[in-house]
Design a protein that fits this description.
alpha/beta; Archaeosine Trna-guanine Transglycosylase, Chain: A, domain 4; Transcription Regulator spoIIAA; Rossmann fold; seven-stranded mixed sheet; six-stranded mixed sheet; 20 strands; about 30% helix
Length: about 400
């Protein structure tokens, strides 16, 4: 049995571990190992030396240890294979047969902090977000190949978590022939192309599958604005649901080019005015095209708590502009993917926007990330996507 370095907790600070929370914060730590590599695997013990869990250590982070397990077991290839197979098997059993793109494993929610794995058809996109997953990267790659049997694996390890963990970004092909051209996937019977090498997140917003289906069900006979539309997925769903027209607005020409291909893949005819490269705020202020269903799916305005107040103003402004544009009976699908904007704050932002727009607004339903992006009851911090379907009453 491997003897791992130990992190000793202060007396009385083991309660969170007993409650199965996977994070150990620096204030709970009495003794730490010296001169161990970033992300090293460590054992966490209480003040009496009793084993509590095993996880990844980062001396530079306020989250000193991210726990993989509360059992004294080796974190070897077999352990990761077991986690990956279990995670993918239950998802695959719940997904419809006409969907081949989904999240395979979602970090703490699946008991593997710092690791995110998405499937796109026969291939995988993997994100090693933390020092611990980086430290165990060779082991994890071997397990990914054995457990998921992919044709290829693309690594998309970039973003705020890597920076906070003291890690540089890494974006590279790590196994097989990763497609140079966008990869073809199917979701709920619809076809999409995904740029797994350079698209946003790992190439496609897999967490919005449930929201896209909700738009499809609500779109019949409506004119739809897909704001911050990226590669047009919400618009494709709207047209598949019988929308009279769907306009996608995004600043990135490359995204809109892929959106045009996604329309074509699904046999949907669109005109030159249906793909608009423009700032969404400016478009909603200046354009007078009538819409009776608007989708607002902006990027994360709040990257950290310090930016939360400014982000809340941005969310309020964009919702205010949308609510002013909608007719009586119009529908607004509005989202925040900022983890610092919880359901309560998002609802308050909507309240402020409705009040300033002088509109009577009803919330018809809430929409979060899809079931392949689960939330552990022991780790509520994993929730980040909040969405509301609203109806303008007057």
């Amino acid at each position: 049995m491997i003897a791992y370095p130990r992190v000793v907790l202060r007396p009385g600070r083991e309660k969170s571990v007993a409650n199965r929370h996977p994070w150990i914060f620096s204030g709970a730590v009495e003794e730490e190992p010296a001169d161990v590599p970033l992300g090293s695997t460590v054992d966490v013990v209480d003040a009496e030396g009793r084993f509590l869990g095993r996880g990844a250590y980062n001396v530079f982070s306020q989250i000193r240890v991210r726990l993989y397990t509360f059992v004294d077991e080796p974190l070897d290839v077999a352990w990761f294979v077991s986690k990956l197979r279990a995670a993918e098997n239950w998802r695959r059993a719940l997904l419809p047969p006409d969907t081949d793109a989904y999240r395979v494993l979602f970090a703490e929610a699946d008991g593997v902090p710092g690791l995110i794995v998405d499937r796109y058809g026969g291939g995988l996109a993997a994100t090693f977000a933390t020092a611990g997953s980086e430290f165990l990267r060779p082991t994890i790659i071997e397990a990914l190949i054995a457990a998921c049997r992919p044709d290829w694996i693309m690594e998309r390890s970039s973003g705020g978590y890597r920076k906070e963990e003291g890690l540089p970004p890494r974006v590279e092909a790590i196994y097989g022939d990763v497609p140079v051209q966008p990869a073809a996937i199917r979701e709920n019977g619809l076809n999409f192309l995904v740029n797994v090498r350079s698209g946003q997140k790992t190439g496609f917003f897999l967490d919005q599958r449930a929201a896209r289906q909700a738009v499809r069900e609500a779109a019949r006979g409506r004119t739809v604005l897909n704001a911050f539309g990226y590669t047009g997925a919400f618009a494709v769903y709207a047209l598949a649901g019988g929308a009279r027209r769907a306009v996608t607005v995004d600043l990135a020409d490359e995204a809109l080019d892929l959106a045009a291909e996604n329309y074509a893949l699904n046999g949907q005819a669109v005109g030159p005015d249906d793909l608009i490269a423009e700032d969404v705020f400016d478009y909603l202020r200046e354009d007078d095209t009538p819409f009776d269903l608007i989708v607002l799916d902006p990027p994360a305005f709040a990257k950290n708590r310090a930016s939360l107040a400014r982000a809340a103003r941005g969310y309020k402004d964009i919702n205010l502009l949308a609510l002013r544009r909608l007719p009586p009976g119009g529908l607004l699908f509005t989202f925040s993917c900022s983890g610092h904007v919880d359901w309560d704050l998002h609802r308050k932002i909507l309240f402020g926007a409705a009040l300033d727009a002088r509109r009577e607004v009803q919330i018809l339903r809430t929409i979060g990330h899809g079931f392949d992006h689960p939330l552990s009851v022991y780790h509520p911090e994993g929730e980040y996507l909040t969405g509301f379907l609203c109806r303008v009453r007057d």
